[in-house]
Amino acid sequence: MEKDISAADANRRFSEVLRAVKQGLSYVVTSHGRPVARIAPIEMTADMSHVLAVAVSQSGTTTDTNRTVDLIRSRGAAVIAIVNRRGSDLSHKADGVFYTSDGRDVEMSVASTKAFYAQVAAGQLLGLALADAAGCGNPARAHELLSGLVALPEAMVGVLDQEAHIAELAARHAARRRSWAVVGNGRNLIAAHEVRIKLSELCYKAVACDTTEDKKHIDLSSEPLTLVCAAGLTGSAAEVTPVSEIGPHRFTPSTISETLMNDYMKEVYPAAAMAAE
């Protein structure tokens, strides 16, 4: 049996989708109404010599991941691992390994943000290499991604330099609002999920996370502080959809304040902010 599912819905409900796939259901993923991908059960045929699997694990000791690797390798599949911990079980099982360790090799409990994003970057690089090997690489896209990775350390330094300003914003807005939510679109949704995890860990809060589009259509009065992941958005104030569309939507006066939105605009879109004034 096969069902259609939008890309946004598949991302938000991925755990549920994966459970259904394990039961034999397949999904056709659509973007703007057009089919772009298919999520289907792995066909555990006797001969899997035509299969390349990429196993991603922070510790390299996750039981279900390693068991799957054992099963498909026993049938001839090749495995590339993206793993943080050197000398782990997964690194010995794989045909090739991307090590992402930096500092500590073993992260306790939930993986650190640096380990998470290192694996995202490794996946991007592997994707570029596979596209080139398959003859369908996009040089312009590859240049964009590689340039972004090269510029990333400097961008991180720039963010850390804003620590005092960020602390002031947090003290002014977060402390007096009990419930928080995080939103993002596209790649920023990945960042939003990571922010949600770290906020929950550090602040002992149940923090909601969703796509911007879904937050536009519900009453947000129970989530007085919404953190918007909007890195990389460019253009006029009208294009800052997370703020311009979520901000006015069914908020009580004690929700996202004009001050927070103005601070955001001045930091990210100074020209647009001045024009609005």
Quick rundown:
By secondary structure, the chain is an alpha/beta fold. The protein has helices at 7-12, 14-22, 63-73, 89-93, 113-133, 139-160, 163-174, 187-203, 212-215, 241-246, 258-268, 270-276, and strands at 2-6, 26-31, 34-39, 52-57, 78-83, 96-99, 180-184, 208-211, 225-229.
Describe the structure in your own words.
Helix content is 47%, strand content 17%. By secondary structure, it is α/β, with parallel strands linked by helices. It folds into 3 domains: 2-39, YefM-like fold, CATH 3.40.1620; 52-145, Rossmann fold; 163-276, Rossmann fold. A 3-stranded mixed β-sheet has the order 1-2-3. Strands 4-5-6 form a 3-stranded parallel β-sheet, with helices on both faces. A 3-stranded parallel β-sheet has the order 8-7-9. Helix 5 runs antiparallel to helix 6 (139-160) and helix 11 (258-268) packs across helix 12. It is globular, with a radius of gyration of 21 Å. Residues 235-262 and 271-277 have low confidence and may be disordered.
